[in-house]
Write a structure and sequence with these properties.
There is one protein chain. By secondary structure, the chain is mainly alpha-helical. It has a domain of 34 residues. Helix content is 74%, strand content 0%. It is built from two helices and no strands. It starts with 10 loop residues before the first helix and ends with a helix. 0% of the residues are buried. GO terms for molecular function: nucleic acid binding; RNA-DNA hybrid ribonuclease activity. Pfam families: RVT_3. InterPro entries: RNaseH_domain.
Length: 62
Amino acid sequence: MACGDFTPFTSASVAEGKVLLGAIQVAVNLNVSAVIFEGYCAEVFLELGVKRRGGASKWELG
């Protein structure tokens, strides 16, 4: 038996699977980036704003 006999996938389905996984990975990366941006970068911007404005940011003044 050849190695290919152990997999239920044809070369075409493997290629399609890789494309699908690639698309899923991009979507996951974008989603993770958005979550990180919304969560952590907001805190970084606040901290930078506090340092630049001498202790006051627009969020603190609001």
